[in-house]
């Protein structure tokens, strides 16, 4: 019997796609403290903070989550040059911030708050630290394949965002999911129940599939989530669950 088979496994309620007040299309009430309180209300165990093309608020949410027993993974929702949204989720903040700098190098333009919304950088005490001036809502110059490769180079997981949506979903944008795109999985929104996803979207094929809220407002946190059977709420364990290895699995 292998060491993996001796691990004690439990089920984690995970919402791996939550925005904060840093995303211009989000609510300014999505501060780090408020996000964690709403996660507690939704009985979530594990979340990922994935603001548009940035990870500047992830550290504050991570620290606030630590105060309340909620595991927070730092990430980004990157917009590719094909205008496809793709999640990059990491186990370490330094890796997310390294991804952020790579994304920034391919991101052009300045934000216009009156047009696109405010991009608020905040700390875990609900204090505003400033605004991000970049056009975070825009597309980067990075292609899908490069984004996946860079995510993996930084030990992260790459998940194609809300593949069921007509806007910025890979199926709508490209018409298919490239077979050579080395995704770790795909994400659906609350609009489709996870058990029906493959029937509704045959393009998913046999790729691992999760559901997330893509919350931009507090009321939406946890409206879709995935139950993962794992030994711990870590990137390595999530990878095992996505692949269905060593007893880890996507339960619901």
Q: Strand share of the residues?
A: 15-25%
Residue-averaged pLDDT, rounded? 96
Give the number of helices: 9
> Which CATH class?
Alpha Beta
**Quaternary arrangement of the chains shown?**
single chain
Which of globular, elongated, flat, extended, rod-shaped describes the shape? globular
Return the CATH architecture: Alpha-Beta Barrel
Question: What are the SSEs and their pairings?
Answer:
Blueprint (H helix, E strand, L loop, with lengths): L2 H4 L3 E9 L13 H10 L4 E7 L5 H10 L3 E9 L5 E5 L3 H12 L8 H4 L3 E3 L5 E4 L12 H10 L3 E4 L9 H5 L10 E4 L8 H4 L8 E3 L14 E5 L4 H9 L5 E2 L2
Parallel strand pairs: 1-2, 2-3, 7-8, 8-9
Antiparallel strand pairs: 1-10, 3-4, 4-7, 5-6, 10-11
Helix pairs in contact: 2-3
Account of the 3D structure:
By secondary structure, the chain is α/β, with parallel strands linked by helices. It has a single domain (9-250), classed as Metal-dependent hydrolases (TIM Barrel), CATH 3.20.20.140. The protein has helices at residues 3-6, 32-41, 58-67, 93-104, 113-116, 144-153, 170-174, 197-200, 235-243; strands at 10-18, 46-52, 71-79, 85-89, 120-122, 128-131, 157-160, 185-188, 209-211, 226-230, 249-250. The model has no long low-confidence stretch (mean pLDDT 96).
